[in-house]
Amino acid sequence: MPDQPTMSDVSMLVNGETRKLRLDVRTTLLDALREHLHLTGTKKGCDHGQCGACTVIVAGRRINSCLTLAVMHEGDSVTTIEGLGTPENLHPMQAAFVKHDGYQCGYCTPGQICSAVAMLDEIKAGTPSHVSADLMAQPQLTAMELRERMSGNICRCAAYPNIIDAISEVAGRKT
Amino acid sequence: MRFDTPATTNPIDQLRVIGQPISRIDGPLKTTGTAPYAYERHDVVPNQAYGYVVGAAIAKGRIASIDLAQAQAAPGVLAIVTAENAGKLGKGGRNTATLLGGPAIEHYHQAVALVVAETFEQARAAASLVRVDYTRTEGAFDLAAARNSAGTPKSGFGGPPDTSVGDFAKAFAAAPVQLDETYTTPDQSHAMMEPHATIAAWDGERLTVWTSNQMIAWAAGDLAKTLGISRDKVRVMSPFIGGGFGGKLFLRADVVLAALGARAAGRPVKVALTRPLMANNTTHRPATIQRIRIGATGDGKITALGHESWSGDLPGGGPEEAVNQTRLLYAAANRMTAMRLAVLDLAEGNAMRAPGEASGMMALEIAIDEMAEKLGLDPVEFRIRNDTQVDPEQPERPFSQRRLIECLRTGAERFGWNKRQAQPGRMLDGNILVGMGVAAAFRNNLLTKSAARIRLDGSGMVTVETDMTDIGTGSYTIIAQTAAEMMGLPIEKVAVRLGDSTFPVSCGSGGQWGGNNSTAGVYAACVKLREAVAQKLGFNSAEAVFADGQVRLGNRSVSLAEAAGAEGLLAEDGIEYGDLDKKYQQSTFGAHFVEVGVDAATGETRVRRMLAACACGRILNPKTARSQLIGAMTMGVGAALTEELVVDKRTGFFVNHDLASYEVPVHADIPHQDVVFLDEVDPISSPMKAKGVAELGICGVAAAVANAIYNATGVRVRDYPITLDKLIERLPNMQ
């Protein structure tokens, strides 16, 4: 006979607010957000790290929330799309996505936006990518750098050039 | 409103709101994660349980036995639905295989059970404990092997299986320049980002589903039929849809199983298909084998044009209608098309973005490129020489608008086509072989009736309700623009509510018919509302002017808010069409230009530039229309270079059933894309004078990529996708 689920307490700082949950330890961070905290802005596109729709920012870094268990994030600070802005008060990246039509169906969009926000911080911090010519130099805000770094976020509607335009505007890069 | 004579001047022509590049009105919801998709409706009904689908592990055969004991005893399990305990089920009129398999299994990953539990984790764990023993039978999974057994399908959506004009065989045999080549396209997956998902709740005999579906009325009808309940007991809601591309046109297993699970568990149940189930459980674009024969005179006039296509589907299914465009795109006095359909036991083949034309243009537009080369003609010029302004099968029937030549010329100029080297393999950029390719774009414009309801309230706000869906196409926005234009209001004064089966039935989203028809339906309802307003004020509705939130007649002016009064005004109407699509052929046209770079050492192809020049009626919103085009162009790049559902021909399933192994284009694959819309209005299509745009963009793209690869390398690949293994051994020597 299968065992009863193992439960565990976890406390996270989600969008600046302390949230305490008692969870089946098998619960992913993604399902903790969507099913337990009802923060459904974070999307489930594949549930195994292949699409990027579930991207959230944990301790300043973008991660696929479907590939990590919620109980591994005791004390972590988690920023979801809901923590970036609201319809009445959009984050600059959200406003740029609206302006440049950086989405169509909208399902990959929260992941794209969270990814974009954290990705610009990675460039600022000097983290090189696969297309950086010089690993020691400060990476440049070229379209190819942005495309490479955003390639973990699939958009089947394929708003790709519009997304790059939106990110470029926020980053202060001329397109 | 019946539309049976070409449109004359109407309020839409003011273009104060229509035709403007307005940002999507649902943008703030989508970009903040607050637009509610199907699986996310915690708000609509309490106490939702979780369902997890078990898919068949064989492609064809029978379930010998199912042992549910362990699963039923697992923690949290509330119910398990199988065909054995589900009661008698019907089949939706638009489904080929049943949505809950057993005892017969018709295809791999056909649903065989739904495990319902308190939590997702419990449902998933228990689903792994369902023990199914199968008796496997032989199936057919290989289109090439089944080709000779293919039969003649019934007349379908695109017309009869065989067409013939003049004497093709004689004219082809007599033609001084001939081409006879065979092309293959693989099975493809919609791979929309949101998996099929449904929450189902029963209230006595009444069933409500919150789902993700492109065609609300079809879903409601087929759900009722499948469950054997009356249509008026079913309510379907689908206000936000995370992509469809044809994969959500029909009722699918998530809906039926959620409904059955909710009945069995006695509480609401939510079900999403897991990503690895989607390719084999749902529908896909079927593979084709296409033989194209072209005969021409030495100066490049096509005298004989033949296109045959073979595809496969489950018993009772239909063909991929890959020959459709060949009946209309080029002139030729002697022509034939034929479609043949083999029985294959893979998952159900069905519509995916531009069914028919997307696959057909992949082949035809390579053939045209090959023929141009044989003739020593520029491929742009060869297409221009063979243009037709009438339906080649019925010359008395003109196109409503046909500006293919202008698309080709405009595109060529903007793209810098004159820099292309006619001889392949002549352009080098370091170790990259550079080439340019062109293809025509063609997709028919379909007319379908569509209705809407419009309410004007005492605050001067207009609310539109229609069961139309927005699958990312921008329906919310263009419908709001239509109502704003018609009522003389700013777009902020219009609210749009979509995707509810209690709203008037629309055309729905499919076949690129959504934009033109749904807005034409809203136009009709607005005309009625204008009449109601005018009548209430004692104005002559034909002379009343609706502008700036006011209704004016002579020197009288009344605000819409005041006209509505406290009780408001309501109007409902729809658009219906006469025979303008019989008298005229209505199609959309374009030209795709692509530049690729092929690594001379590895054979890796990268798209460097893309441009589409399109003539597809009035563009209702250039911002969202451009997005439709670039999205379709990108899907065409996937079709050219990477997308293929790989068939395991021994056991009968698509092996690469996830997003890591079914490779859709990602950011790094797509360069800047240009879209040029020719200034066109088509008064024969509808009062909106618009046509479809969403599918035109994919038609021809893959061939333009293939032609560019040929121009870069001199290697002609007729078997999609054009992966590097098909190039590398034949690349030019770079010494």
From TrEMBL, chain A:
Gene Ontology molecular-function annotations: 2 iron, 2 sulfur cluster binding; carboxylate reductase activity; metal ion binding
Entry-linked Gene3D superfamilies: 3.10.20.30, [2Fe-2S]-binding domain
Single GO cellular component term: periplasmic space
Domain 2Fe-2S ferredoxin-type as annotated: residue spans: 8-84
Catalytic activity: an aldehyde + A + H2O = a carboxylate + AH2 + H(+)
EC number, as in UniProt: 1.2.99.6
Domain of life of the native organism: Bacteria
UniProtKB keywords: 2Fe-2S, Iron, Iron-sulfur, Metal-binding, Oxidoreductase, Periplasm, Signal
Subcellular localization(s) per the UniProt record: Periplasm
Keyword check for Iron: yes
Annotated SUPFAM superfamilies: 2Fe-2S ferredoxin-like, CO dehydrogenase ISP C-domain like
Assembly behavior: Heterotrimer composed of PaoA, PaoB and PaoC.
Function: Oxidizes aldehydes to the corresponding carboxylic acids with a preference for aromatic aldehydes. It might play a role in the detoxification of aldehydes to avoid cell damage.
Name used for this protein in its record: Aldehyde oxidoreductase iron-sulfur-binding subunit PaoA
Organism: Bosea lathyri
From TrEMBL, chain B:
Species per Swiss-Prot/TrEMBL record: Bosea lathyri
GO molecular function: iron ion binding; oxidoreductase activity
Limits of the Aldehyde oxidase/xanthine dehydrogenase a/b hammerhead domain: 32-138
InterPro entries per record: Ald_Oxase/Xan_DH_a/b (IPR000674), Ald_Oxase/Xan_DH_a/b_sf (IPR036856), Ald_Oxase/xanthine_DH-like (IPR016208), AldOxase/xan_DH_MoCoBD1 (IPR008274), AldOxase/xan_DH_MoCoBD2 (IPR046867), AldOxase/xan_DH_Mopterin-bd_sf (IPR037165), PaoC-like (IPR049648)
Alphabetized Pfam families for the sequence: Ald_Xan_dh_C, MoCoBD_1, MoCoBD_2
Full protein name: Xanthine dehydrogenase YagR molybdenum-binding subunit
